[in-house]
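Database export, one record per block. Field names are fixed; values are copied verbatim from the stored entry.
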Amino acid sequence: MSGSLVIGGRAAAGARRRWVLSMSTLLAWRNLAHDRSRLGVVILGVAFAVLLMAVQLSLLFGFADTAAGLVSHSGADLWICGRGTKNVDQAVEIPARRRFEAMEIPGVAWADKYIVHFAVLRRPDGGTESIVLVGYNVSRGLGGPWNVVEGSVDDLKRPDGIIVDDLYKEKLGITHVGQTVEINSHRARVVGFTHGVRTFVQSPYVFSSFKTAQVISRLSQDATKYVLVKLEANADRRAVQNALVAKMPGIDVDDNKAFALTTQVYWLFSTGAGMDLILAAFLGVVIGVVVTAQALYASAVDHLPEYATMRAMGAGDFYLRGLIIKQALIVAVVGYSVGMAIAVLAVRLASHGVAAMLLPLPLILVLGAITMIMCALAGLVAMRRVIAVNPTSIFR
């Protein structure tokens, strides 16, 4: 019998806690919704802050992915390049014999010469555009184009074949496969298009065979810009890298992932683009905190008599703090949902433009957590005012 009473008492206590929780949540919402215009303003403020953070950080992720796209899609394990090379788009010439020296190292499956070189393309209307000519071994495919949507990579084996991205058709004045253009006073024929192969430097990548790129760029027969190395399946990457460095003084040997990161850091932070985006995202947090804090504080002041009454009826600091935090979280959830929905739409629309935007799931979740923390911090301002309320003020 006593056991049943204990269980029944616990059930009753649990039910009472759930009722108090639901009533406090309802009260928190009622206080917010009392002034619909103010609620709308604060939700829009939070939504704008979330949108600003999401857009800026998605641009940062997109720029980082674009900057290192040539490296991350290369399929190479190691990059042999001139000493001090900081990004894939700008490299000095190195002797072509480095390829044969690399092939002598145990663990190397094969090595290919690779060109990344700035050139000038003449548009059909007589204008010119800067491009980045990428020459690679078409037979093996290391460093070649990806997402080919029209034409064939095999057609690059012809002496003048090139592949460009369809996002830059208008920029380059190119309309169709088979069109001929002039690059560095050399004739070239478009044999295919990729989709989504963007470039951070705004000079579109134009892919060709190594021999074609060598002729167009006027690179000497005994020189190359890179040597791309593919390792055997069971090879020790670090050991092969160290062996290559020891065999070739005066050159750098970078792991593919490390070289991609080096390129990203160079373009995002040496140009200041990355810091600008990060500062803009931080500005979104500041805007969200200020707008939410002002709205919650104003709501708290409007309802001070109610809080004083609850204080007089025995409501403790914990209960009152809970009300303010719930108001802040309600605003955070609604504002985040609105802002993120717009951000996702913006990212989808950007997929058809030259400016890449990436909004991966981890970033979405992080922004959700930041929004909750941002609104909770804003609630601290209103919380201090509510906790300080004097219960005797209801009798004045």
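Remark 1: The longest strand covers residues 108-122.
Remark 2: The chain has two domains: 33-66+273-395, 84-249.
End of record.
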